[in-house]
Amino acid sequence: MKRMRAACKTAFVAVEVQFVQLLDLLRSCANAQLPEQEVQQSCLQHVRQALLPSANLLEAALHQAKLQPLRPETIAALDSAWQGVQVAWQAYVQLHGAQAQAQSDEQQEWELRWTQLITLQSHSTEQFNTAIHAYNEAIAQFPACVIARLSGLKPGRTFQKDAALLMQPPA
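Above: the chain's sequence. Below: its structure in token form.
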């Protein structure tokens, strides 16, 4: 059981690294100066400003989950914050694309970096989910279930399906 718990914690380190990189991207995007013609587009500005609170919430949840990655409550909070960040980013990209005729090089770079980070994040969360499933199966089997119950070990929680995938319109 200790080996399984260690594998879950190791898998979480990769998840954490990807979240930190995503936080850096969100903050640089939200804090960038808008060109003059876009400053008047208050709707876009509000959506950009929504990226910072989403990033701050993700950072707080990440800090808690880092301390205890096997606690279902901390992973649930992190997963919820992550879903919120994805929704805020998608709203920003959709609104920016609708209001800007030509994307800036910086905007295109952000979107490309986001896509790269999402791919890496999906892979790392999949590895974490696999480790959690193995851990949950291990502590559910006899005699490990007795030892787990006596030790106070509870099943871990996995990350849910990405909000970005859930929000895509059907083909």
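The mean pLDDT is 83.
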